[in-house]
Amino acid sequence: MEGHRARKRFSQNFLHDAHYVARIVDAIAPAPDDRIVEIGPGLGALTAPLVERAGHVTCVEIDRDLAARLRARFAPAQLTVIEADALQLDWRALVDADPRPVKVVGNLPYHISTPLLFALLPIAERVTAQHFMLQKEVVDRIVAAPGSKDYGRLSVMLQFRYRVARLFVVPPGAFSPPPKVHSAIVRMLPIPPAELPRVDADSFARVVAAAFGQRRKTLRNALAGLLPEEAIRAAGVDPSARAETLAVEHFVRLTAQLAAR
């Protein structure tokens, strides 16, 4: 931490606990010559062991002072530093610059974690695994089951594209400065394209967004602008049900009904 003051506008909380660093790196399981992209490397707590085990890492860092520190610490053969906002980055261009599949990792800034997860969806077919540290309540939402209080749009959209699992919780004391919330590590393994439901991704997103737009509404009312009641029934879904009770496969069937119309 010496020489750098954590900046609130970037949600900077630097991981420093060696025990949790080791657990996270072991979960990522970097192998020699893996293509790894790290989001938000900060002071390099994860970066250093990732470089040691993979040989090279590409990182995305918005803070120019931290980017400079990383360039000074690691040789270009070890670390490529992209000084950019991860939300504004052209992820398609980045993954297409190298034919190898990618492992994406990072301690994601909590205030942009959800939009960033959505921004990574279009490159999922080029990714072998994603491991992220997020606010625990966000991870709980990602892995939530239908009918639970945490289940919502984020759960459905990500479980449609990935197999997700919460690995372990990281306490505030593992960071400097300590955040006011607990964190957790989530593993997201993209589902192979051949196993994905054959529905249009944009249409699926429209159905899910509409269904969860007002959680207390029944599907009959929430989807009124997209699907009539008979189409909802044709999908094998009760129009009087609410979105949080439906599994991902139900949203797939509703999307198929939208396409049929």
Written account of the structure:
- This protein has helices at 18-28, 47-54, 64-73, 91-96, 113-120, 136-143, 153-161, 201-211, 219-222, 229-234, 248-260; strands spanning 14-15, 36-39, 57-61, 79-83, 102-107, 127-135, 162-170, 175-176, 183-190.
- The protein is α/β, with parallel strands linked by helices and 261 residues long.
- The chain has a 7-stranded mixed sheet with strand order 4-3-2-5-6-9-7. It has a two-stranded antiparallel sheet with strand order 1-8.
- Helix 2 (47-54) links the parallel strand 2 (36-39) and strand 3.
- It is elongated and about 65 Å long.
Secondary structure elements and pairings:
Blueprint: E1 14-15, H1 18-28, E2 36-39, H2 47-54, E3 57-61, H3 64-73, E4 79-83, H4 91-96, E5 102-107, H5 113-120, E6 127-135, H6 136-143, H7 153-161, E7 162-170, E8 175-176, E9 183-190, H8 201-211, H9 219-222, H10 229-234, H11 248-260
Parallel strand pairs: 2-3, 2-5, 3-4, 5-6
Antiparallel strand pairs: 1-8, 6-9, 7-9
